[in-house]
Design goal:
Length: about 140
Amino acid sequence: MPLDVPIDKELVETISSAVKQSVTANMEPILKVIIDSIVDGVVSSLRTRITLVEATNEILRKENKLLNDRISELEKDRIEAEQVSRRKSLRISGIPEPALEGGESTDEIVLNLHVCKEQTFPLMKLTNLTDPESREVLCPAKYL
């Protein structure tokens, strides 16, 4: 059964305001504790993750330095090996490239240079590739 009692608007506003203040006053400390607890948990978790990331970063930096040092060492070794291999290299101009099949190889041509001492042939330049200041040597060239 509904009551048809007139309600005063001012009274409703007063009651509403009082309830609101009471709830706010009672809930505010509780909400503050809950929010502080959540924030502390998040901050703690983030600190742990930051510490882990920093530790991982330091490990990776050290590993990267070791790898870069190894690369430098290998590059130095490669350059040294190239220099050693060039010590025995000669550039011989005037010898034709051998045919793909059945032609005399450049090794055979160079080895046969000593055979033609007594024959008169044009001279060929031999240059040491590793020593740019070396003199060119002139040899008899059978294959010009």
